[in-house]
User: Fold MarR family transcriptional regulator from Candidatus Desulfatibia profunda.
Amino acid sequence: MSISSSDLHHDPKQKVQWDSTKEIIFSIRRLIQASELYTKELNKKYQVSAAQLNCILTLKEYGSLPPSQVAKYMMVKSSTVTGVVDRLESKGMVERSRNSPDRRVITIQLTGVGKMLAENAPPPIQQKIIDGLKKLTEVERAQIVNSLHMLTGMLDVQDLEVE
Assistant:
């Protein structure tokens, strides 16, 4: 449904609907901009992406892990972790090893460079959101979940891989 400016002058209900739609779009843009700014700063200051920092911080918190566990803690697919680990390994921040009797089992661990970054890097952007969500009631969090599901449903992005 499109709303023209002449419609807004005649129907106050449509004006409220248009105003709230603009506010939703504006808020989504602010989220995207905050994420892009955070990623640019990480790249500029530490030469890593947000996903790479998330991987490093996961390994700092849980120690050496197989890629499937890294993916679980990062809340991404294993295929995403493979690419992230490839890039971190080429930067000398992580290494893959086969320490198990089953040589097929690979674990990822931080190198000295990766540990240093983990100690000095800023918290991931989602940590601010996590901290804020902890302050909300279960009902408020459920409302946010429902609203986000509606929005992702409109974009048909529920099944996209999160990086």
Summary: The chain has a mean pLDDT of 86. The longest strand covers residues 94-97. The helical segments are 5-10, 12-46, 50-62, 67-74, 78-90, 112-120, 125-134, 138-155. The chain has one domain: 11-155.
